[in-house]
Amino acid sequence: MLCNSRNSLILAIIIAMKLENEDALDRYVICRKCHTLHEEIPIRDGTKACCSECGGVLYKYDSRLAEHGLALSVSGLILFILANIFPLVQIEILGHEQFITIPKTILSLFESGFYLVGLICAFLIFVFPLMIFLIYSILFVLLKLKRGEKTIKELLVLLSRILPWSMSDIFFVSILVALVKLIGYAQIHIGVSFWALIGFVVLDLYITKNLHIYEIWMLRKRTFFKERKNDRD
Ligand SMILES: [Zn+2]
Q1: CA of 52 to the centre of ligand 1 (A)
Q2: 57 Cα–ligand 1 center, Å
Q3: Which end of the chain is more exposed for a tag (fewer CB within 10 A), N or C?
């Protein structure tokens, strides 16, 4: 393991000495499991390249990634909007009815004086999930149009920073726990937003598991490399 790390370090130094600019780094891929450095080679559609040391997946090639990604991210945005404009649940206690929506839940925290908690919740369950799906949609539209190479790079960096802060799945679990505790004390009617939120959380988990940032980074490289090659020809 130590030997492997030392080899990688030596290889990294040799490559750094040969590099003329930062973009030349794009030719190399680091294994996320064992950090071994590999030179990227072209692979066929639907196949994946694996690490020679640990066998972990280095990168995959899916020629329909932009189409699939765009369909998933736009569906996620629609579900997110539906989850936020309609009531999540309707709670009836002693003849008194109350509709609960996501924005109303955040606002009630501010009205109760919990400003810091309200602000954190607003970012974790509203701002960050919305930003993530908006960024995904913009990224795939730009990749389909083959425009905005620099913008795509900046959006991918921003996406990698905010991805760990999306907590809509935790929010959904906390709603379930609250509803289970309320059964027996109140009548609960599930609203449209509840089903939209389930759909959104499932999509969010699917994208997190199957759509990695490095795949979009590789797609960007392939897309603009082909463009530059066509321009030269
Ligand atoms: Zn490896």
Answers
A1: 7
A2: 8
A3: C
